[in-house]
Amino acid sequence: MTLLSEEYIIFGVLETRTVPSLVVVDFVSGPPEPQRLCDVKHAFTFYFPPFAQKASIIDVDVRSDPSPSWAPNSELPVPFFTSRHHRIYVITILVAPNGIMIEPKTLQFFALGKFFISLTRKFADQVPAYIDWPAWGPKGTRMLVFPYRVEWFTRYVYGSRYVTTNGRVGLGDEHVYIYEFNQTMVRWKKRNITNDTTSADTGTTTESAEDPTKADNLKSAQRCVIVTAPSRFADREIFQVEVETKLGYCMTLWEIPQEWRPRSVMCSEDGIVIVVSQQVRGKCNRPLIRST
After folding, report:
1. I need a surface site. Which of 103, 214, 223, 229 has the fewest CB within 10 A?
2. Spatial separation of the C-alpha atoms in residues 159 and 63, rounded to whole Å
3. Which of 57, 48, 67 is CA-nearest to residue 1?
């Protein structure tokens, strides 16, 4: 559960093992006494694409940072800071294809907070509102699929930025991937493509988070990719239908020294923190901090 605004909260709900949903609740307009979710009037339920009958949803999690009301100390000489309207929400669904719990996959849906706010205004006269996937998902989200369980408890999202190693903890590919979902920045970079930037504006069928931004697919000089075309995911062990998502993003690639192995990554407004393992008289963990 996390704050969407000063009046709304957003959280994931698992109704059955194959029916996850997102729920946005206006906690200001509701009564002060506790209520069952099914009795809450000022609520908006967002449904995902239908999952395969043999798939088992293990958990649903929603993350975003900082809080909607956050602002730097007014006494600090900060020229600018992350807009409260440009925060990305990471909805993580852990699913076991065919019900095999030892081989889970991680689905991550990315959506901007202001997008959810606009939908609450659109459906305000229909509360409690129930919004099916075609009415919100394809246009307002981007889905990445990881063939393993990702870390849930690290600070991998801040503002409109998301960071990952695209590999199992301790067994990464010596690269860190920074995804930027600020749509103003995406449009600006698309108009000002340089030699170290490539554009991936062709429709793609993605089987994992590495496509179309896999390090091996980028030339050494191309360490930034812009993705604005729809991505399509078709895996009948997970979904009953092909899933299309369209939210644009930029992905920047950082290379980590070969003798290091990333174990965890975190991000803040102006930096990336990478916890790595370095072989120096035995294995040890140490942080590597890089400003952005």
Report:
1. 103
2. 11
3. 67
- Mapped onto helix, strand or coil, the DSSP state of residue 119 is helix
Distance CA 174, CA 165 (A): 8
CA distance 264 to 107: 19
Closest C-alpha to 91, from 119, 112, 110:
110
Please report, as a single letter, which amino acid is at residue 272: I
**What is the rounded CA–CA span in Å between residue 247 and residue 269?**
21
Distance CA 107, CA 66 (A): 22
For residue range 259-276, list pLDDT tens digits in order. 666 677 888 877 888 877
Both tokens assigned to 176: 């860190």
Written as six digits, the tokens of 213 are 């931004």
- Are the beta carbons of 222 and 193 closer than 8 angstroms? no
State the Cα–Cα distance between residues 191 and 228, nearest whole angstrom: 12
What is the rounded distance in angstroms from the CA atom of residue 197 to the CA atom of residue 261?
26
Report the alpha-carbon distance of residue 66 to residue 204 in Å, rounded. 32
Looking at this protein, which amino acid is placed at residue 130? Y
Closest residue by Cα to residue 60 from 106, 7, 124, 119? 106
Closest CA to 84 of 95, 61, 68, 104: 68
Provide the whole-model pTM.
0.85
pLDDT tens, residue by residue, 94-149: 999 988 888 899 999 999 999 999 999 999 999 999 999 999 999 999 999 988 77
Helix, strand, coil percentages in the chain from 3-state DSSP, rounded to 5: 15, 40, 45
Residue 52 has what DSSP assignment? P
Nearest to 198 by CA among 164, 177, 174, 227: 227
d(CA 292, CA 284): 26
Q: Distance between CA atoms of 265 and 262, rounded to whole angstroms?
A: 7
Nearest residue to 28 (alpha-carbon basis) of 66, 65, 68, 61? 68
Cα–Cα dist 78/207, whole Å: 41
